[in-house]
Write a structure and sequence with these properties.
Layout lengths: L25 H12 L7 H32 L3 E2 L6 E2 L3 H8 L2 H42 L10 H14 L9 H28 L19 H18 L6 H5 L8 H31 L17 H37 L4 H4 L2 E5 L3 E5 L1 H20 L3 H28 L7 H32 L7
Antiparallel strand pairs: 1-2, 3-4
Length: 467
């Protein structure tokens, strides 16, 4: 099926769907993927491996990587439908599900995607503030000693991060964020490398025996039997969250130019991005566990297993902050776009909704200002910041986000769309294999969600906001 359009693919200004010509390549797409995948998830991997142990921890890291790679490759062919090269474009995840699966699945996808996009921006706000506090603590420990009381409240720094995001959120659309993603991807390499380097240095130091094991933390020594179960479930969610980027996958593919075909470019970018992140994840998780043993902190760059060199710990946390500034925008932009598109279609004559004003900013250029965009995006950032202040539970929040993200968006919808797009015969070996994978991942997500919710409930019992 070839789409007929008044716009030619060869047109200098427009693509075949009438949109301004896309210019993305596999390099920019890989940068977007690395930015989206390597986020706050990498920081909890040493803790997650400690809960699972050497065998289950390693297997789980590799398994989640392979599942994410498989389902992502399946989804690249669904960007155009019904033909994967000449069909109509599906510029968003929801549009893809609507066109291929339709009906109630489209609504369920929208609920899952936007809930998780919002959740990730909350998680990134929380993690960035933790890293800001970690820099302050690191300097305090260096100056006054490791036994000093260097406790600092997170919420003022959470607010500072939110204020910065208010200004950054005024970037009009996702296609203008390539530079931000590339900077953020470099930062992610930086802090993951620092964490790996510090772990290797700590292992090389020796000095005292660190308890590690094939099955992780020991019942009766490190944790109670019930805590072992809950933490194991939560660890699965933490690892699942580490690979969460499906909710922006289609939006990333929609930035690619048409030649070569988008699905070919995106497959290359997906293999590149996931291979790079899996290598870093294995190094961070396994070396972090070797460095800290069963006492691995929930966040291995802010849990202060590392005190010295303090300046390197500071640089690592600064890289995290810069990375999360970019990652917040990668995940927030689809939410911004959805509300603004709905508003302009609902009230097309409203100047508040549709009119843009050009404002010249010295040294920056011309800023396209729209009143809906200014007010809506500002309110969104304020609300997500407040939620991050009220619920600052890193591992439990990360585990819950991973649990509710992984199954529907990374596994279920990509598989169902593939089965429809490829017209896979019902009850064939491929169909049965895909359905079994669906069932397995559903069970993993459910137990991870239960473990994370239990963690949040137990932490709420002792937590007082704004202290």
């Amino acid at each position: 099926m070839v789409v007929q359009s008044s716009f030619s693919i060869e047109d200098d200004k427009y693509d075949d769907d009438g949109s301004i010509k896309r210019t993305g390549t596999w390099v920019t797409a890989s940068a977007h993927i690395v930015t989206a995948v390597i986020g706050s998830g990498v920081l909890s991997l040493a803790w997650a491996v400690a809960q699972l142990g050497w065998i289950a921890g390693t297997v789980t890291l590799v398994l989640f990587s392979l599942i994410t790679l498989l389902t992502s490759i399946l989804m690249t062919n669904c960007y155009r439908y019904p033909d994967s090269i000449y069909g109509s474009r599906n510029p968003t995840y929801m549009k893809m599900v609507e066109n291929i699966l339709g009906g109630i699945q489209y609504k369920f996808c929208g609920l899952a995607q936007y809930t998780n996009l919002v959740g990730c921006t909350i998680g990134y706000t929380l993690t960035a503030s933790i890293s800001i506090v970690a820099i302050k603590k690191s300097n305090c420990f260096h100056k006054y000693g490791h036994e000093a009381d260097c406790n600092t409240a997170n919420y003022p720094y959470t607010a500072i991060f939110g204020i910065f995001q208010i200004f950054l959120s005024q970037i009009p659309d996702f296609h203008e964020l390539s530079w931000l993603s590339i900077v953020a991807a470099v930062m992610s390499f930086g802090y993951a490398s620092i964490g790996i380097g510090l772990s290797i240095a700590k292992i090389a130091e020796g000095g005292h025996h660190l308890e590690t094991g094939l099955t992780g933390v020991v019942v009766g020594v490190d944790v109670t039997s019930s805590n072992k179960i809950w933490n194991t479930f939560q660890a699965l969610g933490n690892i699942a969250f580490a690979y969460a980027f499906s909710m922006v996958f289609v939006e990333i593919q929609d930035t690619l130019k048409s030649n070569p075909p988008e699905n070919q470019t995106m497959k290359k970018a997906t293999v590149t991005g996931i291979s790079i992140t899996t290598l870093f994840y294995a190094l961070c998780g396994l070396l972090g566990y070797a460095a800290f043993g069963n006492n691995a902190p929930g966040n291995f760059l802010t849990g202060f297993g590392f005190y010295e060199p303090f300046w390197l710990v500071d640089i690592g946390n600064l890289f995290i902050i810069i990375h999360l500034i970019g990652a917040y925008q990668v995940f927030a932009q689809p939410v911004f776009s959805a509300v603004e598109s709905w508003g302009s279609k609902r009230w097309p004559q409203s100047k508040f909704m549709t009119k843009e004003y050009n404002a010249r900013i010295p040294l920056v250029g011309t800023w396209r200002m729209n009143m809906l965009r200014v007010i809506w995006r500002t309110m969104y950032v304020i609300i997500t910041t407040l939620i991050a202040i009220i619920f600052p539970f890193f591992n439990s929040i990360v585990g819950l986000l991973g649990a509710v993200t992984f199954f529907p968006l990374t596994v279920y919808f990509p598989i169902e769309m593939y089965l429809t797009q490829a017209k896979v015969v019902k009850y064939s070996s491929t169909w049965i294999g895909m359905k079994l994978l669906n069932g397995f991942c559903l069970i993993v997500s459910l137990v991870a969600a239960v473990g994370s919710i239990q963690g949040i409930v137990s932490e709420l019992e002792t937590y007082t906001p704004f202290k």
